[in-house]
Specification:
heterodimer, A: alpha/beta, four-stranded parallel beta sheet, globular, B: about 1100 residues, five-stranded parallel beta sheet, 34 helices
């Protein structure tokens, strides 16, 4: 670990980062190590429930993230999350604890009590992107950049869940923080009007024709803008854009070949982390040929 | 008296048609009332407010049956005045009435009849109990001042003012912009008739200007309102125009010569205008004005000599180089010198640095002098034609002495400068090396000083060749001491007396005096200031092979200017920081090296705010050197015997002469300035000090009070956030190549050429507005422009006030989805109005940013209105403006037009017909709010859900017009505060009653007109303006107004004078009586709200009609039911 930045969080990787998105997890851990940000993985964390539980059992959908928050509160740390969906489910819980009177908060309290845990609403849920952009700050980042990724053209794709709820409207509609980080790395960030449009999420498994159409729109604009790659902040967005790119090509008669990489992978390269530690070879659309020259 | 008789209450219950009777069992309530104590009659009627209904009450009173009346009907807001009048008509005091609201608060809001009836009984019972205790009150009236104030010169304000003036009454119209006309003056056509907006408005504006009953106060804002209905006192601040409105003929000569361009706010910043400008061609009053930010630009503020930087930059841009240099010389007689050696604090503060790099101000100043030397080398400043007989001796011909001599000679004094060296110039001549400041430049500039009549005597040293007393005897009226800080501080370490160790200033002095001091091959320079760098670079030029600078702190703390350090390093000089000599090593009496110790910086800082250096134990190292130059500081020394001047010369610990705030020393008539006073400082600081000292000496000789050196104005203008500033490359100073200059004393900096200078000057943002270059003053034949004019404060007395402060548009840049501020093809409605207007920035052509006509235009409705995220209300005009824009685009370009709407609201007279017409013109209507605007390779795309077709649509267009919501004008909250108005949730001013009193406010005598009350179109705003005038005229014509007696009063015996009520009163009706030490209520201002009563800890306040006894009785009545 390089010199400590003094920043320390409880880290909730979430299920995706243990399975489909281990590359995201590895790149987060190696980048944060390089930046002196301490991520202490929550012991015995559980799935946040994501969309599936929300639509079947409302109370349970609050209780699952609440347990993780209780664990973080016991540690006395804010909670760092990487996945946009995990961000929303956890924020939804802290949101009802920030209200003066929330019947739901009382229900959560009493349910947690039954398993011997408490949550007082003192934990903030922070996306890794916000930790880098706001807590560490652009100046802190700029000083650490060892290699500039000159010539790399990307579109930044935040996904629909990243900046809401809780953000100011302006940020919710048109977030800028990843653009600014990428800009610091020397990456050419293209205008992208679909920054916060939906990728279809889990509809890709239940209504693939709808999700594929949405992904097609995202890929089409990225290609039109002349991007070499799409940079994402969420494992589900990555999956839909990457794994299903071939499917979209077949369905719509296109020939997209756009690597979909996590912002932490590009940041890692710029900080001098080895490519293999960033797992850039794992995408269905290979990113390594594009990124090799910067490592 | 009525109330001394036994109380006999009559209860009158209204059915209100079926409004009350459908829910409330009226007969049951009547029987309940009848049973109550003191009730002598209880009656009911279908419409108690009707004439027959009122007659029932009147009859009972006239027959002497009742002397208290309870009416149970609707809200007292509706009919209390009606029934009060009924009582008065019948000969009973109207305040012996109590109303029970059994409609709004009972029948309308209760579901079951049983409960409604019970509640009605309780309310009636309460009213009866209170009525028993009512007392008659006297209505009073106050006289009305016949003058009226209208605030806001838009169409509503204009209409109101005109109507009042045409009725023969005096009107003051206050408008904060330079002209009346408001938004309507900016519109192109008006819907639905497509009349030209200006054509129908300007006759009204002219009529107003020509009406002798109207006094226009433009560029003005109301700061304070006191008093009450009929008798207001209003304080108005009128910002100066810097132009005499009577003398100005609006010929435009000033505009033609003005070099400064600023965003044209009349055109919403779509183009630029000059800093002296006419607001728009039909402006009323038809005069020009100068736009100044009020505070100085940061460059001018930072300059110790206060040189008008924006002024000369503006003139350079216009290639008026001679005028520019004249402007510089007003504050700075040594421009060629400062253009080379100044440390330019101006550039550090330049706002352009926030966008790219600061202006190259120093280089531009030097360019002006280069240009003059090239084109008119013989040009000399004029000596004053008359001298005034004053004689001043200046001691020291350095920058301070020369500058002061110049300023004093310009004032008409005869000035003699005494200099000890063979040539004048001081540190400029003998300190700064030739490669930075060529001798011929210095000589030329000193000759300029001579040209204004200054005599310079060299080889005369004060204290040796001549004394202060001699000067006194020779009849000098005043003396300025400016001998600088030339005494060098030496290192006191072992070996400091070895040969080959030289003080820097003497070294530089000898070189400049034409000698060649003997130097070794390896030169070490100790110190971090400009003298150290100068000595190092000079050594190199004298042939030293290796030159090193050692400095004890870090590079960050080096006082030398960063450019000088960089230039030295480029020439091969090494700079070693955090190293301090501990002893010098010698052989045979000559220095051969030095031992240094490494330093580190402690966390603590010293007096200068820099971190303190401390030696690192055991880090000593030795460096070979055969010459060491010491440049670690200078201090002033002056030792003068004095006898004949009154007073005593005093010095501080650093050897600096003590002066007072007028630069005068302890000796009367002897002044001091420059390094002698401040310790070692810069040339420009010496010039700044010379300005003050010479002003003081001038006043001293004239026998006037001495001016005091003012502290710098605290504020400077902030960065102009509202402007879009594009980056422009800074023109860098060309330099002689490092290789060529290492062995030569030729000047290193080569100067900008003319084209570079003009380009560079054009980068100036003119953040303070007008640059005060005074070209307009020269150009104005009417002599109407005066830059010294000040704001004026007017105190007005008026009887009525009409507030018509209008609106602004919602700023759509706060909602990035619509692309405003991000894509140039997205404009607001008001920007489009200017674009399509013949007098606008495109002369009426509808153009995209690339200058082409659009092929497709989207008009988005409801931007920021009917939207939970912004304003929930309907902005009311936008559907019609959208139709108008659609028509204008079709008419002027033939482009396809797409309206994205939620509903089309064409509600006014002839509006629907206009809608039909526009539909027939082939305009597309898509029912669905424009969700977002994005830019693609081909242009803009509007995305929306078409709710009629049930599909999602993307429409490609070239231009997007955002119909942004009307929102309260900026500053509306402050207006509300000043006038005591209430605002609704939407921020618009509240009327007394939404339907029936849309013009009145809760502050009696203050009326509303136009959009400040809520979004409305021109016909409605005009009607309201006329209506507000009628309200004012009614009071004026009556000559007096009745004031409600329902007001608070304070019992002096009980009041403790704590003044809590003064804070609590929302109407500013309570005052503190200093003499009696109690609070008193101004009954005219009081609205009887009772806040003071509730806040009073002593129970001294009471409100008539809402006495504690009465309220308690009322509660008893409710509980009994």
């Amino acid at each position: 670990m390089s010199q400590s930045s003094g920043l320390k969080y409880a880290y909730f990787p979430g299920c995706s980062l243990q399975s489909s998105a281990v590359d995201y997890n590895r790149s987060i851990l190696s980048t944060c190590t390089e930046l002196g940000i301490e991520l202490r993985e929550l012991e015995d964390w559980n799935c946040c429930g994501t969309t599936a539980v929300t639509s079947t059992n409302l109370l349970l959908s609050y209780l699952l993230p609440a347990r993780n928050l209780a664990l973080a509160e016991e540690e006395g740390l804010d909670l760092a999350v990487a996945c946009n969906s995990c961000l929303v489910t956890h924020r939804r819980v802290t949101g009802c604890f920030s209200l003066d009177i929330s019947p739901l908060a009382n229900k959560i309290r009493s349910s947690l009590h039954k398993i011997g845990r408490t949550f007082r609403g003192r934990v903030q849920v922070r996306h890794i992107l916000d930790i880098l952009a706001e807590d560490l700050g652009f100046e802190g980042l700029a000083g650490k950049v060892k290699r500039r990724l000159e010539g790399l053209k990307v579109v930044p794709y935040y996904g629909c869940q990243y900046s809401r709820p809780g953000a100011q409207l302006k940020e919710a509609e048109m977030p800028e923080s990843m653009d600014q980080i990428l800009d610091l790395l020397g990456v050419e960030v293209k205008e992208y009007s679909r920054k916060t449009k939906c990728c279809g999420g889990v509809l890709m498994t239940t209504k693939p024709e709808i999700a594929a159409a949405l992904v097609n729109e995202l890929l089409e604009e990225a290609a039109d803008r002349g991007a070499d790659a799409i940079v994402v902040t969420c494992p589900l967005c990555q999956m839909n854009l990457d794994i299903y790119q071939g499917d979209v090509n077949a369905r719509f008669g296109r020939s997209y070949n756009l690597p979909v990489v996590y912002f932490t992978q590009l940041l890692g390269i710029a900080l001098g982390v080895k490519l293999v530690e960033l797992d850039v070879h794992r995408g269905f659309v290979p990113a390594e040929p594009l990124l090799r020259k910067y490592a | 008296m009525a109330h001394s008789e036994p109380v006999r209450v009559g209860v009158y219950i209204c059915h209100c048609g079926s409004n009350i009777a459908e829910k409330v069992e009226v007969q049951e309530v009547r029987r309940y009332a009848e049973e109550m104590e003191k009730v002598v009659a209880a009656r009911d009627y279908q419409y108690m407010c009707s004439e027959p209904g009122q007659e029932i009450i009147r009859k009972d009173i006239c027959e002497g049956l009742v002397n208290r009346v309870v009416v149970a009907s609707c809200s007292p807001r509706m009919h209390e005045p009606t029934f009060r009048k009924t009582l008065f008509d019948a000969g009973l005091n109207g305040y012996l009435l109590e109303m029970a609201n059994i409609r709004e608060q009972c029948s309308w809001c209760t579901e079951e009849n049983r409960w409604a009836t019970e509640k009605a009984k309780a309310l009636v019972g309460a009213a009866v109990k209170k009525a028993v205790l009512l007392e008659p009150l006297e209505e009073r009236s106050v006289p009305v001042n016949p003058d009226t104030l209208v605030v806001g010169g838009g169409v509503a304000g204009i209409e109101a003012a005109l109507k009042v003036a045409e009725a023969g009454k005096k009107v003051y119209l206050v408008e904060r912009e330079p002209s009346i006309g408001g938004h309507m003056a900016r519109l192109d056509k008006t819907f639905p008739t497509l009349d030209c907006s200006a054509c129908i408005l300007t006759p009204k504006m002219v009529a107003l200007a020509q009406n002798e009953k109207v006094e226009l106060l433009t560029l003005s804002e109301v700061e304070e309102v006191s008093g009450y209905i009929g008798n207001f006192k209003v304080r108005v601040r009128q910002r100066t125009r810097y132009v005499d409105p009577v003398a100005c003929t609006a010929c435009g000569d000033c505009r033609d010569v003005c070099p400064v361009e600023l965003p044209d706010t009349f055109n919403h910043g779509l183009n630029n205008k000059k800093a002296v400008y006419q607001f728009f061609p039909q402006a009323i009053p038809n005069v020009f004005q100068v736009e100044k930010a009020g505070d100085p630009a940061p460059c001018r503020h930072a300059c110790p000599a206060g040189v008008n930087v924006p002024g000369y930059l503006a003139l350079i841009k216009e290639r008026k180089f001679a005028e520019a240099l004249d402007l510089v010389r007003e504050a700075l007689p040594l421009p060629a010198i400062c253009g080379r050696v100044c440390f330019h604090p101006c550039e550090e503060q330049c706002h352009r640095a926030q966008v790219d790099k600061p202006l190259a101000i120093k280089a531009l100043k030097r360019f002006l002098t280069d240009y003059e030397a090239k084109t008119s080398p013989e040009k000399k400043p004029k000596a004053p034609e008359e001298t005034n007989g004053g004689r001043v001796a200046v001691v020291g011909a350095g920058p301070a002495g020369l500058s002061a001599a110049y300023f004093l000679a310009k004032c008409g004094h005869k000035v003699t400068v005494f200099e000890k060296e063979p040539e004048p110039g001081g540190i400029l001549r003998y300190g700064i090396p030739e490669y930075r400041l060529p001798l011929e430049i210095l000589k030329h500039e000193i000759n300029q000083v001579r040209a204004v009549g200054v005599e310079i005597r060299t080889c005369v040293e004060i204290g040796r060749d001549i004394t202060l007393d001699d000067l006194h005897d020779q009849g000098y009226d005043a003396v300025l001491l400016a001998t600088g800080a030339l005494s060098e501080v030496m290192l006191e370490v072992q070996g400091a007396d070895l040969d080959g160790i030289l003080p820097a200033l003497s070294f530089l002095h000898d070189v400049r005096a034409g000698q060649r001091p003997k130097l070794g091959k390896r030169v070490a320079v100790i110190g971090g200031g400009n003298a150290a760098v100068d000595a190092a670079r000079t050594s190199l030029r004298l042939g030293a092979r290796e030159v090193k600078i050692f400095y004890r702190r870090s590079r960050l703390e080096m006082p030398a200017s960063p450019e000088e350090i960089a230039a030295a390093e480029a020439e091969g000089i090494q700079v070693e920081t955090l190293a301090n000599p501990v002893r010098f090593l010698g052989e045979k009496g000559r220095v051969v090296g030095l031992e240094l110790v490494r330093m580190r910086l402690l966390e603590e800082v010293d007096k200068s705010g820099r971190r303190i250096p401390a030696p690192v134990q055991g880090s000593n190292f030795v460096v070979e050197a055969d010459t060491v130059i010491i440049a670690i500081g200078q201090r002033p020394t002056l030792d003068l015997a004095v006898g004949k001047w009154e007073g005593e010369l005093q010095f501080d610990k650093g050897g600096r002469v003590r002066v007072n705030k007028s630069c005068q020393t302890g000796l009367k008539g002897v002044f001091a300035a420059g390094d002698l006073v401040s310790g070692p400082a810069s040339v420009v600081e010496a010039v700044g000090a010379a300005q003050w000292a010479s002003a003081a000496i001038d006043a001293y000789i004239r026998g006037e009070p001495l001016p005091v050196v003012e502290d710098r104005p605290e504020r400077t203008v902030p960065f102009p956030e509202e402007r879009e500033v594009l980056p422009l490359q800074r023109q860098e100073m060309p330099e002689l190549e490092a290789e060529k200059r290492r062995r030569s004393f030729a000047e290193v900096e080569l100067g900008l050429d003319e084209e570079q200078a003009v380009l560079e000057a054009g980068r100036c943002l003119h953040c303070a507005g007008c640059a005060e270059c005074l070209q307009c003053v020269t150009a104005c034949q009417a002599k109407a422009i005066d830059h010294a004019m000040k704001d004026e404060v007017r105190e007005l007395e008026v009887g009525s006030i009409i507030v018509a402060t209008g609106f602004d548009l919602f700023d759509p840049s706060s909602a990035p989805q619509w692309g405003y501020g991000r894509y140039p093809g997205v404009v607001t409605a008001l920007e489009f109005e200017r674009m399509v207007n013949a007098s606008g920035p495109t002369h009426g052509k509808i153009l995209c940013k690339d200058g082409k006509e659009p092929k497709a235009v989207a008009i988005l409705h409801c931007i920021g209105s009917r939207d939970k995220n912004f304003q929930e209300y309907c902005s009311r005009i936008c559907c019609m403006t959208a139709l108008k824009y659609a028509h204008l685009v079709r008419e002027k370009t033939g482009a396809e037009v797409y309206n994205f709407y939620i509903d089309i609201r064409s509600f006014g007279k002839q509006y629907e017909e206009f809608y039909q017409r526009v539909q027939e013109e082939g305009v597309h209507f898509i029912r669905g709010k424009g969700a977002e605007v994005v830019e693609t390779g081909d242009g803009l795309v509007v995305r929306a859900e078409d709710t009629l077709l049930g599909i999602f649509r993307e429409v490609s267009v070239d231009l997007v017009i955002l119909n942004a919501a009307m929102v309260p004008a900026r500053g509306a909250q402050k207006v509300a505060q000043v006038f005591g108005l209430q605002t609704g949730n939407d921020g618009f001013f509240m009327e007394t009653h939404l339907k029936l009193e849309p013009l009145k406010t809760s502050s009696d005598g203050i009326f509303l007109a136009g959009v400040c009350q809520g979004p409305k179109d021109i016909p409605d705003a005009v009607s309201q303006g006329a209506g507000a005038a009628a309200e004012a005229l009614r009071n004026i014509s009556a000559g007096k107004v009745v004031v409600s007696p329902v007001s608070a009063s304070i019992n002096k015996e009980l009041c403790s004078g704590c003044r809590v009520c003064i804070e609590a009163c929302p109407y500013r009706a309570v005052e503190y009586d200093e003499e009696e030490e109690v609070c008193t209520v101004n009954e005219v201002l009081c609205k009887g709200c009772g806040t003071c009563t509730a806040s009073c800890p002593s129970g001294a306040c009471r409100v008539a009609c809402f006495d504690t006894r009465q309220l308690m009785a009322q509660i008893e009545g409710v509980l009994a039911g």
